Structures are given as structure tokens and as C-alpha cells.
């Protein structure tokens, strides 16, 4: 019985690629570590215990039929592929939304997301008394490094919640209050500016504000402790709203 290495070798030769060229192309396209000697061992059938991520890259690059989820060897492979598909769909949605909003800027169109696109479930949105509130059952990522993966995830959460409102919210100059409720042992630092930018980007892309400059949106960060239900609450209201409205919304204690 032929092993997968023989299929890879046959496909590589049909593509007119050397082992070195194929290994370099796969590494760059899929973000996996692969060099010519290791690819040679795979083709010879001497390496068969490589990671599920590398297996997916090889099968996808060489167009080798992949088994359906139910035919995979273990739960780890199944979970990895499901997460990969989810991330790909999230990235595709965000890219589509960016393109749509760019077109909207050129043609003066509305920036309301398509309600048929699910985004990322998990967050909720409520609009009451001129206050738009998002509740995300997650904490913003720590650190100051901006990553596309965390950006897409958080934008997807907020977009999905906003689409459930079935209404359009517009603010001329919004005050955005980001309230982080963490367990006592995991205090969130206010200098995590890269993480907060995910929230601002989502608000801008939804068209709630015209742009994310200081003329259109101001930011306020507050925190608290909740050991039972850590979460991130995002409040949006017109900047001119009185302090009493902030208290009624539950942002500050009475």
C-alpha cells in the first residue's frame, strides 16, 4: 500500500517543484516549519508522526484529498481543523467588511454589517436610554502587541452582538467606556492599549461613529473585580450625556 509520502512526491513532481522549492513555499504559505531534508524523509515514508498542522499544509498545498472530520485519527486533529476553519471564516468576514466599508466611504453608503453574517457568537448588545452596551464574556488580551488574530476575534464578537439589535445606532461624538471586570488575582492593566484598539476598530467599522479620531470618539477605561463572572463591558453614549446617565447605565456606582 502506498503511503502519503509517495502521493506528495508525485504531486510535487507534477507541479515541477524541487523539494527545496516546495518546502520553502509551504513554510511561507502556511506558517509551518519545513525544510528540504524533512520533506525528503516524509516522501520516503520515514517521517509519519508530524503535526496535524503540517499534515494539513501538505495535503492542501499538494491538493491531496483530506478525510472528513469523522475520519480523522484523534480528537486533537478534529479540534485543530475546526479552529482553523473558524479562524479562516472570521478573517474572511473581516476582510469582506473592510472592503465594504471602503466602498461605502467612496460611495457614501451606510456601514451596517450584513445581519446574515454571524460573526463570532458569545457577546450581547443592548440599547437603552441612549446607551449602547456590549457585554463580552472574555477579558481583552494582555500585552501591548497588536495581532490580526485577536483583532478579528474581538471585532467578530462585537459585530455579531450588534447585528442582533436589528437597528442602526449613530453617534456624532461618542464616549466609549471600557469596563474590565477581572478576578482578584488577574488585574488588567490600563496600558494594554493594543487590546482596546480592537474595540475602537469594531465601533468604527460598524459605522456607529464616522471615524475613530478624537473628534468622533473619546475613550475611558475603568475596572472592577468579579471572581464569578469575568467579562468586558463596553458602553457607548454621546459625550454630552450628563453624569447621571453614566450612573443609571451602571458604569459608575450611585
Give structural notes.
The protein is an alpha+beta fold and 254 residues long. It has 8 helices and 5 strands, in the order H-H-H-H-H-E-E-H-E-H-E-E-H. Strand 3, helix 7 and strand 4 form a beta-alpha-beta unit. The N and C termini lie far apart (74 Å).
For the record, give the distance between the C-alpha atoms at the N and C termini, rounded to a whole number.
Answer: 74 Å
Write out the strand line-up for the largest beta sheet, numbering strands in chain order: 1-2-5-3-4
Weakly predicted, low-confidence segments:
67-73, 108-118
The main β sheet shows up as: 5 strands, mixed
Distinct helical segment count: 8
Rg for CA atoms: 23 Å
The overall pLDDT average reads 77
- The chain-level structural class is alpha+beta
Short synopsis of the structure:
By secondary structure, the chain is of the alpha+beta class. Helix content is 43%, strand content 15%. Mean pLDDT is 77; it is low at 67-73 and 108-118.
Please describe the structure with a list of short key phrases separated by commas or semicolons.
single chain, 254 residues, alpha+beta, elongated
Walk me through the topology.
Blueprint: H1 4-14, H2 19-30, H3 36-43, H4 52-61, H5 75-107, E1 124-128, E2 131-136, H6 148-163, E3 174-182, H7 193-205, E4 217-225, E5 231-238, H8 243-248
Parallel strand pairs: 3-4
Antiparallel strand pairs: 1-2, 2-5, 3-5
Helix pairs in contact: 2-3, 5-6, 6-7
Amino acid at each position: 500500500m502506498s503511503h502519503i509520502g509517495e502521493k506528495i512526491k508525485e504531486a510535487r513532481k507534477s507541479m515541477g517543484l524541487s523539494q527545496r522549492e516546495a518546502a520553502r513555499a509551504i513554510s511561507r504559505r502556511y506558517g509551518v516549519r519545513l525544510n528540504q531534508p524533512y520533506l525528503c524523509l516524509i516522501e520516503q515514508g520515514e517521517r509519519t508522526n508530524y503535526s496535524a498542522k503540517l499534515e494539513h499544509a501538505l495535503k492542501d498545498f499538494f491538493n491531496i484529498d483530506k478525510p472528513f472530520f469523522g475520519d480523522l485519527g484523534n480528537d486533537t486533529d478534529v479540534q485543530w481543523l475546526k479552529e482553523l476553519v473558524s479562524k479562516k471564516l472570521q478573517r474572511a468576514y473581516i476582510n469582506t467588511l473592510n472592503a465594504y466599508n471602503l466602498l461605502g466611504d467612496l460611495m457614501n453608503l451606510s456601514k451596517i454589517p450584513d445581519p446574515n453574517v454571524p460573526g463570532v457568537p458569545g457577546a450581547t448588545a443592548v440599547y437603552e436610554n441612549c446607551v449602547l452596551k456590549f457585554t463580552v464574556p472574555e477579558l481583552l488580551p494582555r500585552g501591548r502587541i497588536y495581532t490580526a488574530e485577536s483583532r478579528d476575534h474581538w471585532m467578530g464578537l462585537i459585530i455579531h452582538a450588534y447585528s442582533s439589535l436589528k437597528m442602526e445606532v449613530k453617534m456624532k461624538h461618542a464616549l466609549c467606556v471600557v469596563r474590565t471586570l477581572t478576578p482578584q488575582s488577574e488585574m488588567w492593566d490600563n496600558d494594554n492599549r493594543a487590546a482596546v484598539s480592537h474595540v475602537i476598530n469594531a465601533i468604527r467599522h460598524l459605522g456607529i461613529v464616522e471615524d475613530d479620531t478624537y473628534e468622533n470618539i473619546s475613550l475611558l477605561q475603568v475596572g472592577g473585580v468579579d471572581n464569578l463572572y469575568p467579562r468586558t463591558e463596553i458602553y457607548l453614549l454621546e459625550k454630552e450625556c450628563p453624569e447621571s446617565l453614566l450612573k443609571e447605565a451602571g458604569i459608575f456606582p450611585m
